[in-house]
Specification:
Largest sheet: 8 strands, mixed
Bound molecules: pyridoxal-5'-phosphate
CATH class of the largest domain: Alpha Beta
Mean pLDDT: 96
Number of domains: 2
Radius of gyration: 19 Å
CATH architecture of the largest domain: Alpha-Beta Barrel
Number of strands: 14
Distance between the termini: 26 Å
Structural class: alpha+beta
Helix content: 25-40%
CATH topology of the largest domain: D-amino Acid Aminotransferase, Chain A, domain 2
């Protein structure tokens, strides 16, 4: 089996032990979606990206819970998590050795056709070893709203992982134009949010801080898992409102996400940060170990 494929899911409402008759595997190069798909026409749907290591899908339950949360925010039908769990298991088993990425996609469906539509894709993961070991330069970018926007305007769907990632991708292109590898979004009133596809953690001595997940950021499954690990190692962890000025006061900083894992930050807006390579390697060794 080619390691790039899609598993099309016929959404089932009933609870049972085996959903395999609702799955159809499609080669990645074969047509699979209707031209009336609202995910492709409007980005109207939600998704998850899951890291897979040696056929083990990492943090399946947190990803499923976040998929359900995003679906609720978007008023999509409640996903049948037992069916999705089995689909992830089927896809992960076919991923082969090494690192892969599985995406879960739940779309509003087809205009005047079946709704919702759902599928899982699987592919080998990109090689992120340079970002994990040498680190990444980041720039801060204005997200264009203040820290009250999520609460004031829930229809902006801030905090949902929607398929409308054009803004996130544009921010990455802007970061590249400015000579950086990635970006950190900040609000118009100077509060640090997250990266376009990753969470931020900052280290101050033995304390690790991440922007509080209320107010328009997506809480990262990797950040939650790493905080639990850091607590076990005796470190303090904290969710806080982080003013932009605190960014360069940090001793170290990382961007965290499910597939790239922990990428140490070497500079924020031209202010250099030190990288503890041995510590970062240990973080990534933990993140690559089987996690549920
Ligand atoms: N924030 C945003 C906007 C993201 O897109 C992502 C990942 O895709 C994250 C944070 C990190 O989430 P996770 O650690 O679950 O991959």
């Amino acid at each position: 089996m080619d390691r790039r494929f899609a598993l099309m899911i016929e959404p089932a409402a009933d609870v049972r032990t085996d959903y395999s008759d609702t799955f159809a595997i499609v080669d990645a190069s074969a047509p699979a979606l209707s031209v009336g798909e609202l995910s492709t026409q409007r980005g109207d749907g939600v998704f998850e990206s899951i890291g897979v290591v040696d056929t083990h899908a990492q943090e399946t339950e947190p990803h499923l819970q976040r998929l359900a949360h995003s679906a609720r925010l978007c008023e999509l039908p409640e996903p049948n998590l037992a069916q999705w769990r089995q689909a992830i298991g089927v896809a992960a088993a076919q991923c082969g050795p090494g690192e892969s990425v599985i995406k879960l996609i739940l779309s509003r469906g087809v205009d005047h056709g079946p709704a919702p539509t759902a599928w899982v894709t699987a592919a080998p993961a990109p090689d992120f070893s340079a970002a994990r070991t040498s680190g990444i330069r980041v720039v801060t970018l204005d997200r264009g709203y203040d820290s009250g926007a999520a609460e004031r305007s829930p229809w902006l769907l801030l905090g949902a992982k929607t398929l409308s990632y054009a803004v996130n991708m544009a921010a990455l292109r802007e970061a590249h134009r400015r000579g950086a590898d990635d970006a950190i979004f900040v609000t118009t009133d100077g509060v640090v949010l997250e990266a376009p596809t990753a969470s931020l953690i900052l280290r101050f001595g033995d304390r690790f801080v991440t922007p509080a997940p209320h107010g328009g950021i997506l809480q990262g499954t990797t950040q939650i898992s790493l905080f639990a690990h850091l607590v076990q190692q005796g470190f303090a962890t904290e969710y806080a409102t982080v003013p932009t000025a605190d960014l360069t006061r940090a001793d170290q900083a990382w961007l965290l996400s499910s597939v790239r894992l922990a990428a140490p930050i070497t500079a924020i807006d031209d202010a250099a940060l030190t990288v503890d390579h041995a510590f970062t390697d240990a973080l990534n060794a933990y993140l690559l170990s089987p996690r549920d």
